[in-house]
Specification:
With about 525 residues, chain A is α+β, with helices and mostly antiparallel strands. Chain A has helices spanning about 20-25, 30-40, 75-80, 105-110, 130-135, 165-175, 180-190, 230-235, 260-265, 370-400, 475-525, and strands at about 50-55, 60-65, 110-120, 125-130, 145-155, 155-160, 200-210, 270-275, 280, 290-295, 305-310, 320-325, 330-335, 350-355, 415-420, 425-430. Chain A has 11 helices and 16 strands. In chain A, helix 2 packs antiparallel against helix 4 (about 105-110). Mean pLDDT of chain A is about 85; it is low at about 240-250. The interface between A and B is large, with 83 and 83 residues. Bound molecules: zinc ion (2 copies).
Chain lengths: ~525, ~525
């Protein structure tokens, strides 16, 4: 079984069974879908749009994923179908998410047994296949990945290189597509309607995972513009030990609705995701909160302060906790910390948003690797959140001493209104008082009341540089200090009074003694 | 980069970076060590003993793992250093644990950057190396795994096959061992003292993982016969969201002590584990409980009933929950279910033991893959546990109505006393009344008071066949039914009395009317 490369040392090889093994880290199916979205989002592909849909090919239910990025050639498709080749680097300051070089394999093989990739780059049109069924049928003892590239000869004639012929034969025999023309038709489908761009990648996954009852693991019928995890599954999906105190009614929508999950998947969304043909409205979580305060966390192992945005969820007081991102990608959602883990109302309704680039995500990007860095971070987030909670309660009490409604139960509106342009994808701040729910479904920069940002050509309003910005003032702490000072003053005053009283009584005793003495003297004088 | 095998289709290849990626699923270091133990435990190796130790080689701190199993040859070492080749099958009814063919890679590369394997089988002596440092230094773009086999020529002369020469060169250059003689010395160290057997495998891992402060992730000093996770790490190790209500004092010893973890790693231990030279006392959890009741779970997707043993922890009321095994291997420990997840005292102190071979463990074997099967199982375990809790409380109340001490707080002793023979590893039941803590450290069958099982040659006492055994009688349910019946009887009696009273009063009314009537008749007669 050993293939000896030039060095004369055996290669470590891959068993077909490893495809399943490797996919088991995605226990939650959206975690697998997110891997495919990440791949398109990353700077090497840098797609502006991403489509997720279901389709039926020759009677077989399929999931499809398409991006309008740069497309792949023979070499990059081969890396995509191999393990651990992520030579992704930051492009124009955009950091890649896919650092493990395993997203496509683990993600696609979690969703179904077989996947085929169609891609058109500026230089070529290629098809690659990663199929467990194929490997079983040919009795493979290593993972082979048929890859074929089409070369345009003239007009609509495409030729296949000699060395790809075996791959073409296997793809036509073992995929859902049985002629070269069917493959070319799928490549042509990568053309984005209404756009000049013709590069991009299209992934079709079939033999989709099913539950033990034989039903697909997704519900495509409940909402025709969404892909949902059926309620009987998501209601008990989360490991009960993980959220013992979270009744089902508090399960965040993002747990079972792909549309909701996609809306918060990126901290600063730069790619439009379409689920079943309809655009996902991205949510800038940190900007949708009420009573926003900016705090910072300065770990000893990181040079810079890490900004944290705290605020109250304006939509539901039951969804709260920390939104933890890593290189712009959501890792943990609504992760409760500190006082939120205790059986009281402290921290209820409070959301924190932090980008923890200094931590390492786990294999499935749904958690961070347990390390002392991670543990310190979680402890610290708990402390900061409690401070925020105290601060807001103190401020409200001070501003309106008679208000007995807890903050989390009061009506709240986001501190700021932000809207995304449907053409340039820039985010624009709207003036206070505008009701965002009344904006048109498609909004463009030219509708902006603020003339400064009324064109798609204008860059986004620069974010406040986090370096310059101070953490919010924890006034409740000043109050606490003030309270302590007053308490001390009061005690000193009491001490003084006490001393005075003692002096007084001594004085009176002295006077009484004096009088007695005088009486005695008088009596003596009289006798 | 493509190597084309016979079929003419490109191979999927492995990047050296994948070694790290693939190891990240083991967030908890004992999870990585357990993989190495599993490999020796599995029927293809079927070691009787396994040694875990630390050592220092040329100034470098190392972990060592050694078994006295069948040993490996060139081909099996190559599979061990490749991905997904688990052709393990059941031997004599013993099912293999390692189903993924990834344990050695993910486990060893989690513990350190580099590993070397020495093995002696009946036919050969081989050395293989999986080293991230080596791959970095030779600038490899695929994972290569040097493997060398030594052939005995005469007396103490060993020769190396031509095709292994390049591997030998790289091992001597990039491992901690720089001469052939040093390698052979390590192979010779596989000889087990006091035993005839000379086959086995010895793994040395170096460049051990360190924390951000540069300290090793293990504490070797706190207990010289244990390998522990330092307290500042384990105290906050578990994801706080996973066990929000579990104060640190309730962290099971198995979380931070390798010795304690090894003692419960297998449901029915058949291999002796030595941590730093001292034998680990295996614990038969299901047999160490008090008030044991045998229940069953019959999932719709499994033909047979699955036995569950419930009982009270006799050592600590704070460690409770379900011990979930899979093919004899512990997957989840102290997993709280049902009423144990609520903020009351229900289910406190109760342990359940179940072997869930019908579920699929995750990649790191620390959890099960989320599926509807898993969810149904957890729900059902919650119900069964609550029934057990009700039953024991009811029984105690009935037997001793004046006892106000809750079961979980009362002194308890295990229902049965079991001890393992140090020679044959058989488990023997001791008569009631024997205090196990007073047994000698080394116990042998010949010390058994029961003459029937007083020899190592005698097989273990057969377990009660679970198929024949009924689930325990849930007498509290009978009581509930009885209570309901009495309630109904009482109501019927009341209804009857009510009816009687009504009849009586009607009768009296009738009589009164009768008397009035008679009076009237008399008056009429008189006028
Ligand atoms: Zn615009
Ligand atoms: Zn014995």
């Amino acid at each position: 079984m050993a293939a000896l490369p030039d060095r004369g040392v055996p290669l470590s090889t891959l068993s077909p069974k490893f495809l399943h093994t490797n996919s088991t880290s995605h226990t939650w199916p959206f975690s697998a879908i997110a891997e495919l979205i990440d791949n398109a989002y990353d700077p090497d592909v840098s797609a502006k749009q991403f489509w997720i849909d279901k389709t039926v090919v020759k009677g077989e239910l399929c999931l499809t994923f398409m991006d309008n990025g740069n497309g792949l050639n023979h070499e990059t498709i081969h890396k995509m179908l191999s393990f651990g080749y992520s030579d992704k680097v930051a492009v124009n300051g955009l950091e890649p998410i896919g650092i493990y070089g395993n997203g496509f394999k683990s993600g696609s093989m979690r969703l179904g047994k077989d996947a085929i990739v169609f891609s058109r780059s500026s230089s070529s049109s290629c098809v690659g296949m990663l199929s467990q069924t194929y490997l079983e049928m040919i009795n493979a003892n290593q993972i082979v990945v048929p890859i074929v590239c089409f070369e345009k000869k003239n007009s609509n004639q495409f030729s296949v290189r000699k060395k790809d012929e075996a791959s073409l034969r296997d793809i036509l025999r073992y995929s859902l597509f049985s002629t070269k023309e069917e493959l070319l038709a799928e490549i042509n489908a990568i053309h984005i309607p209404g756009s000049q761009q013709e590069t991009g990648t299209r992934i079709i996954i079939w033999n989709l995972r099913r539950t033990s009852t034989g039903a697909p693991e997704f519900d495509f019928d409940k909402d025709r513009y969404d892909i949902q995890i059926p309620s009987e599954i998501y209601e008990t999906m989360q490991d009960p030990s993980q959220h013992p105190n979270r009744p089902n009614s508090y399960i965040p929508e993002s747990v079972y609705s792909l549309r909701a999950y996609c809306s918060i998947l990126y901290l600063k969304p730069r790619m439009q995701v379409m689920v079943r043909g309809h655009k996902v409205k991205s949510e800038l979580i940190a900007k949708s909160l009420a009573f926003i305060r900016k705090d910072h966390y300065k770990p000893i192992f990181v040079k810079k302060r890490i900004p944290i945005t705290f605020g109250y969820n304006t939509k539901s007081k039951d969804q709260y906790g920390i939104m933890m991102y890593h290189k712009n990608r959501l890792i943990k959602a609504y992760e409760r910390v500190g006082c939120q883990l205790k059986a009281n109302n402290m921290g209820v309704g409070v959301i924190g948003v932090i980008e923890c680039n200094f931590l390492d995500p786990t294999h499935n990007k749904q958690s961070f690797i347990e390390s002392d860095k991670y543990r310190k971070t979680m402890t610290n987030l708990g402390i900061k959140l409690e401070e925020y909670w105290n601060e807001i309660r103190y401020r409200r009490k001070k501003e309106n001493p008679n208000d007995t409604v807890p903050v989390e139960d009061a009506m709240k509106r986001p501190d700021q209104n932000w809207v995304q342009c449907d053409r340039c994808l820039h985010w624009r701040k709207l003036p206070d008082g505008i009701d965002c729910s009344k904006l048109p479904d498609k909004w463009f920069c030219r509708m902006n009341p603020d003339p400064q940002f009324r064109s798609c050509l204008v860059e986004e309003e620069p974010e406040d540089s986090d370096d310059d910005q101070p953490s919010y003032r924890k006034t409740y702490k000043q109050q606490e200090r003030e309270d302590r000072r007053q308490q001390e003053q009061k005690m000193q005053l009491e001490l003084k009074h006490h001393e005075e009283r003692r002096l007084n009584s001594l004085k009176k005793q002295g006077e009484a003694l004096g009088r007695q003495h005088e009486n005695l003297v008088q009596q003596l004088n009289q006798t």
